[in-house]
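Give me structure tokens for this 452-residue protein.
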Amino acid sequence: MMSVANSLNALSPLDGRYANSTKDLSAYFSESALMKYRLKVEVEYLIALGNEKRIKELPLFSKDEQARLRKIYENFNSIAAEKVKAIEANTNHDVKAIEYYIQGKVKKSLHPWIHFALTSEDVNNLSYSLMWQDGLKQVYLPSLQSVNKELKKLAQKYKNSPMLALTHGQPATPTTFGKELAFFCTRIDRQISQIKSHKLLGKFGGATGTWSAHMVAYPKVNWTQFASKFIKSLGLEPNLITTQVEPHDSLAESFHQIVRVNSILNDLCQDMWSYISRGVLGQKKVAGEIGSSTMPHKINPIQFENAEGNAGIANKLLNHLATKLPNSRMQRDLTDSTTIRNNGVALGHSYLTLQNILKGLNRITINKVQMAKELDSHWEVLAEAIQTILRKSGKHDAYEKLKELTRGQSINAKSMAEFVLELKVSDEDKQTLIGLTPACYIGLAPKLVDLI
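Here you go.
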């Protein structure tokens, strides 16, 4: 973890102000983590070469030898990372530094086989996909699921709590607070399902994706089969027809999945902010916390505001990554190299979004008095119900009659009851309407919550 002194001098807020909040992602997206993933790819490739029977010059590694080789990346730490960085200071090439580092860990006879017939992108594309895949699975998804679990809990708790709805900012057919939260749960569930089922691709075909160097050395090896088996062993899907670069289409798809999650969460944050502003939601006090430097009474919805801001930053980065990475001039340019390094930054802001929403949800309370007051102040929302009954009774001008009564008018329980009593509808329908109030005009809202 970064020291206080270092965090105060950090350029990025993720490594400074928010260092404690994002530290779990460091194991997957730091420079040291990238080195470790590259080491894993290189070491596993060396072992796979040893397993290929047609490569006579490299004997099969015993189980003990394989275990020793794997310890090169399994035991990789900050001290080892500094050694790699020292090598890179001379090579001015980060992947070559990894190769030389491994050479320092194995016997000389193995040196020619490290990074055999590979281009840097063979190592990098697999490493970055593994970083992203592991970061999503181990850190981001559990946090997203925690947010959705809390939303579902609140949805059930408040499924029967009636609340005035607003469409276009105007009073509309009432709902329940629980149903409105359930709306976000179903959207998030869909994205979680897609994130879990999505497959990232990897390439391993050499300098221009032709396996030319491989074929010159060992023409009898089925290199596409070898690459497919190797890529699958790492947990990725093979992409066999590429240029020097894996085109990152599958990564772009994954980035866009997180963009959609952030868009949904942004929608949630804006609604929660509005509910708090209206007073239908309150926030629990936290001892010692200050809401405003000048107005002591305030408890600002800062968690939802912070989440909204971070979701926006994340989506700008993710959208750029998703549109830039699939484009490379001819068979290779290096614009992707500096761009893809920001994948952890994008996920870091997405992760902050989740953390802040979870904090915000844990602080909210509902204000039943204000909810009831809003509902009782807007009896005109029952106009929809009345005109629907009139339509049922064959009245061709039902909509127009209710428009004349309610549009721009102040309606209350008394005036609404007087209007209903004059209607020429069945006694059963009239009794239904007389018994209707804004608070009970919520349709299937409570039952919809039970569908999540």
